Every structure is written in C-alpha cells, then in structure tokens.
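Dear U.,

For the methods section draft, I wanted the exact inputs and outputs in one place so we can describe them consistently. I've listed the two proteins in the order they'll appear in the manuscript figures. Please don't edit the token lines directly; just add comments below if something needs changing.

First protein:
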Amino acid sequence: MITSPKRLHHLDALRSFAMLLGIVLHASLSFMPFPWPVQDSEQNTSLYLVFSAIHGFRMPLFFLLSGFFTAMLWRKRGVLSLAKHRVKRILLPLVIGCFTIIPATNWAIEYVSRTHGASTAPIKISELTPLNRDDIIGETDPKNLNLLTEAAIRRNDSDSLMLLIEQGADVNYKSEIKISALHWAAGLGHTEMVTILLDKGADINAGDGKDSTAMHWAALFGRPQVAALLIERGADLARPNSDGATPFSMSTPEARTSVAPLGTIYAGLLSIPFDESAFYADSKALHELILNSGYTPQPTSSAQTDLLRIPLLHHLWFLWYLFLLVIAFCCTTGVAKYMSGLKRLTPLVVKPFRYLWMLPLVALYQLQMGPESFGPDTSTALLPNLSILSYYAVFFFFGAAYFLSDDHEERLGRYFWLTLPAAFCALLIGMGHLEPGADNTTSMAWWVAAYTCFMSFGLIGLCRKIFSAEKAWVRYISDASYWMYIAHLPLVFLAQKYVMEWDAPAFTKLAVICIGLAIILLASYQLLVRHTPIGWLLNGRRKRNGRLLSKG
C-alpha cells in the first residue's frame, strides 16, 4: 500500500468554501425574479451577477475536489475501505436527510407560502398594481408589458390581458426563468386566459426550462378544465419533459401520491394557489380525460420509473450524484491500478494541455443543458439525468486523475493571478450572451466552460498560496461546513421571510441572512453535532480537544 500523502489543508479549505457558498447562493434567490417561495420587497437584479458567479463554478469545483479525495482514499486504503467510507459519509447522510432535512424543507416551503407566497407573484407585483387602462396604454417597454401580462394572468383579468396584447405584449414571451404566459395561465387554472392566449397565437406546446408544456403544468397542479381545453386545441400528450415525464404519467394513480407533494412544493416556489385535498379528484378527472381523448400510453415508461423522476431531493441531490460517481470509480479501479505508471499523461491534467480537451467537453455538456442560466443544471430526482451526471463526472474524474498524476511541483493553479482575471472576463462576456432572444447558445456554452475551468483551477492555486499551512479556525470551519450546508435550506426560507419586509437594501438583507445563519449553524454544529453520533457520521469520531480519532 502506498503511503498516504500529507494533509492538503488548502483543498480542505477550498472544499468547505464551495459548500458554504451554497448558503449565499440560496439566500440571494429571494431578491431576484426567480421561482422561490419568498420574494423580497427589495428586488435587485444586480445580484444575478453574484448568483451566476457562484453557480458557474461552485458545484464543478466541489466534484473536482471530491474526485481528488476519492482517489486519495483509494490509494491509502483500497477499494473496499473506500466503498465503506463513502456509504457512511455520503449515502447514509442522504438517506437520513430524506426523512429529516427534506421534510423540514418541504414544511418550510409550505409555511412561507401559506403566510406569504400564495398571493404574490415571483415579480415585484407591488410596482405593477393597479392594472388600469391608462397605465397599460402608456406603457411601451416590452419587458414591462410582459411583466404586466403575467400580473394580469395572475389576477385573471381578461380585459387587461386583451389590452396588453393590443399594446404589443408578446404572448410567447418567456421570463428569465423560461416560463411563458400560457404556463402561468395553465398552472393557475385560468381557462379564459388560456383561451385568449391560444386565440392570439400562443404556442400550445412551448416548453419551460425543463421542457414542460402547459399540459404538464395542468397535470402538475390538477387543472382538468384547462387540460380539456388544451386537448381540444391539439396539445401534445405524448411529449416528455427533460425528466422523461409526460402529462399522462404525471396524472396516473401511481404517481398521484408523489405528484401531489411535488405540486405543493412548486406551488410554493411559484406562488400558485394549490389545494392538495382537491388535487386527487381533479387529477383523477384529468387522467380519465386524457384516456377518453384517444391517447395511447407509451409502453416505454412505467409508473415506478416515473416516480423515480420526481424531483424531491432538493439541495441533497449532490450526495446522490457523488455516490454514483464514487461507485463508478470503484468499478474502474482495475484500470486505475495502472494509472500510476502513466505519468506521461500528467501534462493532460496538470499543464495547459488540459484546456484542449476539457473546455470542449465541458462546453458540450453545457450546451446540452440549454441556455437557461450561466452554469450547470441540477437534477433532484433519484433517476439521474445522464447529461448532468456526465458533466459532473468530467470534473470528478479530472480530480481523481490529478491526484494520481502526483503533481509534486504543484503546477495546477500556479498562475492563479492570470486565470482568475481571465475567469472574471469570461463571466462578464458570457453573461452578456444571456440576453433574451439572442441566438448565441453555443458561444455562451464556451464562455461558461471557460469561466468554470479558469475559476476552479485558479482558486486551487490561490488557496494553496493562502492556506498551505494548517490553521485551527480553517480546520474547524472545514469540519462544520458539511453539516452547515446539509441543514441550511429550511433556515434560509425562514430567514428570508423574516427580513422580506424590512426597509433596507437587498445587499444589507442578504448580509444579515448569511451572517445570522452562519452563527446559528455554527452553534448547532458545536452543540448538537461535533461530539455526537451525527458528527461521527459526517466527519469521524473526535476527542473533546478536536483531534480526529477515526476517518472510517
């Protein structure tokens, strides 16, 4: 067995940094037009740059570091010990989280939605009311017209909608979160609004960010009257969304138990009224309606498979994907045993040659995810999205190969003073490609890939410079970060609701949320986790002085 290398404190620090940035990421979402349960009174679109800067590299970097540490553990202990360790550190926390953290997250979503979200659109509606004829006639800005259109649909105001369309509102416009007016009307169950939009040329089969059509939305929220109208107008009943679900599969008796809570969650995220008690009867009626329309269910999908496509893992999805990649690594250890003799391949990982293969590969997978955001997509279902899984596999196995390359000269990230400014430039240029309606998806994918790689490699070099020596406080934060990220999301929703009506700038509120949560989560780690079985599960057993007793 090869002797284990010295502890790499800078990579520990960087991994915890990537974890904790997730809290900032989620805390910022209430200040932007995003499907989020809490929409703060102070919207600030400049925070979208902050969001994109974090989202663009955070999870790729995390998977890269996870691959590195996976290879390290394999070389130190062997494949069986690696598998045991990852079951304990990754799979078991995920299983426990499914019965604790995820229900708590769902409760928090329902709570903030009941007390705030049901009547509030994911735009700053207070600036759009009242909808009166003079305000609409005087409005010429296309963006404002489209926002007013959404507001009219939410109010079920057909007169305002007709006037807005006459003023030039685009019935096929999609918001920044890729939702069209027809989606909103179908999800809300406003049949008259659906009729108007279709009569005015709305695309009945237009997809949202997950390629779900208005018919999918009708099925998700149990709107049989809307479904009947869409079927009459020729809606495609066989079209799957990016999760592989069809409107029919979402309305089956087997799926209802899963789709109902999913509808509750999305109703909270999108501020759509949702009556779970009425959903079951309405969904049954919708299901029978589809069958009576002459639709023939596709044999390629089963109820069990459809249930696996339900996105219910929330922010714990990364544990599932990480575990799958660890299993893939364990299955390839027969090949990996010989990698130590392939030092000639080191330039492909360490030297700039890595960009020649990594940038095209990352751009390819980014292109498959579509132009919805600056950065990778996520998938919170148990059935993994192969494109997304492959995307993160690129970084995971790069990290593993980097460890096996034995970069004793520490060349990766050495020129961080060059790569980090280059990453910032790629971010600004790539963000410019997100303009609505721009036909530049391919070029944006390249800029996103450049930003992700430059930022990840640059941060490795920067942290090596700053955190090469062990620092007690950094080690403590590193140990706490795993728990802090797992536990943070329900608290984020509650904190956002607490500050939403404060008369303060968005950045001030964001700082209050992040600092307050950091204090609460660190206190909970020290008092409830660090020296308890939870802490032993996440980080290994410790003595009271903090020294690690066991990593297994």
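Second protein (the one for the lower panel):
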Amino acid sequence: MAVVQISRIQVRRGQKNAGSGLPQLASGEFGWAIDTRELYIGNGAVSEGAPTVGNTKILTQFDDLFDLAESYQYRKDDTFIQTGTSTVSPIRRTLQQRLDDSVTGANFGLTGDSSQDATTALQRAIDQLYINTANKGSVQSRKVLHLDAGIYSITNTIFIPPNTTIQGAGHDKTIIRSNSANAIFKTVNESSTPGSPSPQSATTFNTQPRNISVKDLSLETTVADGIGLHLESCRDSTFENISIKGPWALGDTIPSDYEYDVGILIDSLSGSVKSENNHFHNLKITNWGYGVMSNFDIEHNHFSDCDLDTLGIGFAFGVDMILGSVSSGKATGPLNNRIEHSKFSNIEREGIWIEKGIKNTSRANYFELVGNNGGTEAQPEYSVIKFSANDNTSLDDMFTRTQQLSYTTANINNIPYLQEVQGAAITSQGLTHTVEISSGGPTKVFRLPGIKNQTFELDYHLVSRSVEMVRSGVLTVTIDAFGTPTVHLSDEYTYQGDTAYEDSVTFTAQIIDEDGDLTNDTIGVFSNASVDQLELRFRIKNKQTNIS
C-alpha cells in the first residue's frame, strides 16, 4: 500500500523593521518580511559566482513601482553628459519626481470630454498649483498646467491668479467652452484662496494679477452678452495663440453698456494699480459686439499679429469714461498702447475707436470691409479709425477702402469719400497705389476725403511709357474751413528725361459734392496731360485736426 506524505515548506520569516533589520540570507534562501510584506532571496557567495553578496528583493503585489524606480538619470547612456558634480556621481531621481515635472489637466480629473462639467476640476487645478496655502509664493511650485486636446465645458468663470501658466494643444484643439454669460477667464489678485477669489477692490500693486501666461487654446461662448477674457488690473502677462469666439453676428445690436459682449475687457483699479505691460500675440477675436474694450487707464499694452473678424467694433478705448479721477483709474484713458501687424475684417463700425486716451498707435494694420455696416467698400458709413482724442497715431496702416473710393472706376463718381482716419492725427498709409493717366483732360484721376482743415501729402513717381520722362515729387493738397471752403494743390518734383515733356502733366484739385446733398464731401484730383501712357504711383500722408 502506497504511503502519501505531505510536507509543509516554510521560508525564513520575521519583521523587517524589528531588531537589526533584514539578515543575510543563505544562497537561494527565501526570507519573508511579515510587517512590510516583502519577499527576498539570498544572492549566494561570490565563490559560487554571485556578483555580490547580499539579498535580492522579489517584486510582489504590495510593492510601489514608483518608490522602487529611483534610477532615472538624464541621458544615462551618454558619457558626454555630466549631470552631477562628477561623472561618477550623476543626479538620480525617482520616477515620481520625473513625472511630477509636468502637470496635465488629467491629473485633476479633466478629461476633455464635452459632456463633463469641467468648472470645478479646472478651477481646483489652478488653485492647487498657484494659490494653495502650502505653496503660495514658492517659485518651484509654479508649474505649467497643460490642457490636452479636448472640449472643456464650464458653467462659471474660471479665475486666474498671479503666476498662472496654462498651455493648451493649440487653436481649436484645446477648447474652453462656456454656457453662461459670465466671463470665461478672469484675472484675480494674490489674496485669493482656493474657492474664494479676492475682489479687485482689495488689490494692491504687490498683489495684483501678474506674470500670467495663457497660450495655445480657444475660449468660446454660445451665450450672448458674455466676456471672453476679463483682465482686472493685470500687468506683465502674456496671452498668445488664443482664439476668443462669441455668438455675435453681423446685423446684431452692438451693446451700449460697453461692459458686455466683449472679447477682451481690460480694467484698472487706480493710477498705481493698472493693467499694463501685457502682450497679446497671434490672437483671433471673432463674433463679439466689441473685440477689445477698456474704459480705464491702461498703459503699454501691446497687440501684435492678431486677427479680428466679424465684430461690431474692433478696439474701443475710453468710449464711456469721464476723465480726472486717478483714484478710480480714469485720469488719462488708455495711454501708450500699440496695435500692430494685425488684420481687421468684416467690422460693422470702426476698427479702432479711441474716444479718450492719448499716444496710442495703430501701425501696419490691414483693414478690409471695415466701417460699412455690413455693406461693401462702396457703402461706407463710418471711418475705419476714429481718434476723438488728440495725439494718437496711425502709421503705415493699409485700407482696402482707399483703392475702392479713391480710383476704382465704378466708385469714382457719385459716392462720397468717407475718410479712413477720423480726428486729430498725422497719419501715413502703408499701401502704394497705382493709377493710369491718359493724354487730355481735365480728367479725374483719384479722390481724397473732403474733410475741412486737413492736408494730404502724396509722395509720387510718374513715368511715361510713350516718351522719355521720369518725374518724382510730392503733391500737397490742403483744404481749409473758413468761409467758403477752398482747396489748394502744390506740386514739387524733380525731373529726368526729354526737356520737352517736363511740364507735360499738371494736376489740379477741387471740392466736390458727390451725392448731391448740397454739402461738399470729396476732393477730386484732376490731370491735364499732353503725353499718353502715364503711370502714377503714390503713397498718402494725411494731417488733420478736430477743428472744423
């Protein structure tokens, strides 16, 4: 009869953290640490072939791989990289430390699924990274919050404190979509705590929003009268590669409140706590009553390479302010702000309207279908740029209106020329214009706006294809406002070519009532030429005042 014997195999065991610690195990001997639930096996002796005497840990379900992965080293196999004080003492970090270098919204439960209400999770991520009481003020805690591609639906304002850095995956990839009339993003001061944004009235220079960076994402709302980005006394911050989109469409009412239906609303608390030195680069602002609005003393803010499309008014500065109060941030109006290298398209009224504020500059911007109330360039109703305040500048700006109203054949008669830039300013246009002149005359060659008390200087180059003549000069056209308005034209030039043709072309100017309403509205410039096949190329500089 067979005998069956069952043997119980036991391994060496004990408490790892009791006594003198883990003992040296014999070759191939198992050791079980009861208190930590860790399993070890003895390496064996060197004489047996073991590389070193000691114990080897065996992984179990109770081991934390993040704690065990302590050997991360930058470019570990690259002998030319020295990360530590010497080549034999490299910097080693845990996997946990390495992964914590980058923070994503997913770390806080943000999935980018449009069906998820991301309001609480997104605000929690921002609060914990930048104003958590344990790390507020710590430079090392100011990580970049990465938001992966997706749609983040929110139902309330997301508050942005100082030192916040948010980076998405790009335009129309990372989308913050609001379904409320509140601001999508709003800056708050450093006194804010998680869940409790501090009011602007409590802001000081040292606590105001600053050093903020938001880039590579879209802000969208489908609710009327909302605000895309609301900056409250924000300074020294950057907003880059952002699309800000609302629900406004051409033909909709432009709000008269000036505080709603605004892509970017910029406020200041006082003369010493203001929105200043902010940079806005490569923004796309579409479908708002107002693209950018400020009725406060904001200073040295820079907008560059932006695209403004389908708006009631592009930029509106100081349109609803009474000057004189330094304490309320309304002493000067917007001051020393720059808008440059940007495109304005399909703007019902003014592309830029500065009612109060000085020393602001529009430079090298392109304006297409602006000021026509939704119509064509042959149907102007507003100026493209309006400077009600003195000492603002339009420099090298480009207007499609100029070509259409100045010398396009279909529009050169019976349509009043409403000026590109209205108000007291010395302006220069960036585009060069070309017209053909034939022999005979007087022939209306081109037109200029008929605003009183202004002077046009046209830097021109005139060449004939039929005879030897080249003429380069300046046409100066001046119109006054006293008594019966009169217009004066002078022509100073240098000439090269056949002397017989030096005076073959003369120019005159006269005031015209193009629409027959008994009010002169346009200056016509006429040519008399004795030679044919002339090409006139010119650029326009304008000097005008608010005195009428």
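Candidate sentences for the figure legend, describing the second protein: The two ends are 129 Å apart (CA to CA). DSSP finds four helices and 35 strands in the chain.

Thanks,
Y.
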